[in-house]
Amino acid sequence: MSKVRHVLGISGGKDSAALAIYMKNKHSDIPIEYYNSDTGCELEETIEFVKQLKGFLGHIEMLVAAKDSPEPTPFDHFLKANGGYLPSPQARWCTQKMKLAEFEDFVKDDYAISYVGIRGDEQREGYVSTKSNIQSIFPFRKNIWSLDVITKVLNDDNIDQFSKYYKEIANKKTFDEVRNILLQPLTKSFFYSKKLNYLLDTNIVYFNKAVFEWLKTTDYPVGKLDSFPLVENTDNLNVDDIKKILIDSGIGMPAYYDPIIFEVDGEVGYYNRSRSGCYFCFYQQKIEWIWLYEQHPKLFEQAMEYEKSGYTWIQGERLSDLIHPERIRQIKLDFIKRSKQISSKKKDSRLVNMFEDDNINCANCFI
């Protein structure tokens, strides 16, 4: 069999850290290479958290883009190359240039399995490389396979072959139970999501083993392995499970998650940073910008400096306007109001779940 590398990216956030600990504890026989993409623009809390994790894991390869640039950080290098145009949800050049490109250069043309910390309670697919030699696996989810694998293995053109593998692996009772589902053609009312969820609900391990056998007929990296222990995976971990992994390991949560109390107009709220990454990340909420302004004023000033070229981090609002006292007051009040609404919905979640539509949106079914 061809050599296959196992890689896991450490972002500095809770999920990737928990996945690294989880894999080290549960699958110590897998020789995982841990790496971190250093943009030069992370919070000090993030840097310290990665250092702690490095002590636990033993080694984390640091990937740094534009190493020979005269600019102070990789971000400044690529910002200059982009004519001062700040990144945004519509133009995420920061992620592409400083992280994804460096990751793919780290792997090069080797076959590689990339372990990704998307939780079982998240509604997103996660990064899947466009390079055919890199395959993403999601150990925290009931469905460990990526969207591209699922759509191929359950496609009508492959179903006879997949059914054959399934029959060889599953016991007769289970195969008889799922046979009609396997052979049923895909339609608008019976799309990939329903077929996938039925098979997983029947027996996760049999499904995974059948997929593994099918992958051996392809050029996917997992198919190059003699065996793959994650086919026995039945975990479906949520945010509380992730917190428990971090706390039990002694690493704990990143410090930027710590809630900080604030008061405005007699109302009390709590704010914190919700994600890892650059301190000026354009995905952060306005309340997080206020958190940055009040907890890391120098970094906020640096973020404002980048707006002098005319581009802004927030569409339609400059950071200098965001920190006017009345604007801060309104942002905090709005955040407290939304927090109360979310808390109220969580209390009613059982009632809501009872009346949810059985039809699963195929765009979200693989999460």
Structural account:
This protein is α/β, with parallel strands linked by helices. The protein has three domains: 4-142 and 235-249, Rossmann fold (3-Layer(aba) Sandwich), CATH 3.40.50; 146-234, no CATH class; 259-345, no CATH class. The chain contains 15 helices and seven strands. It has helices at 14-26, 44-57, 74-81, 93-107, 147-153, 159-169, 172-183, 192-202, 204-215, 239-249, 286-295, 297-306, 319-322, 325-347, 349-354; strands at residues 4-9, 32-37, 61-63, 111-115, 134-137, 260-264, 267-271. The strands form two sheets. It has a five-stranded parallel sheet with strand order 3-2-1-4-5. A two-stranded antiparallel ribbon has the order 6-7. The longest helix has 23 residues, at 325-347. Mean pLDDT is 91; it is low at 349-367.
How many strands appear in the DSSP assignment?
7
Overall tally of structural domains = 3
Distance between the termini: 30 Å
**CATH superfamily assignment of the largest domain?**
HUPs
CATH arch. level architecture of the largest domain: 3-Layer(aba) Sandwich
The poorly predicted ranges are 349-367
Give the radius of gyration. Answer: 23 Å
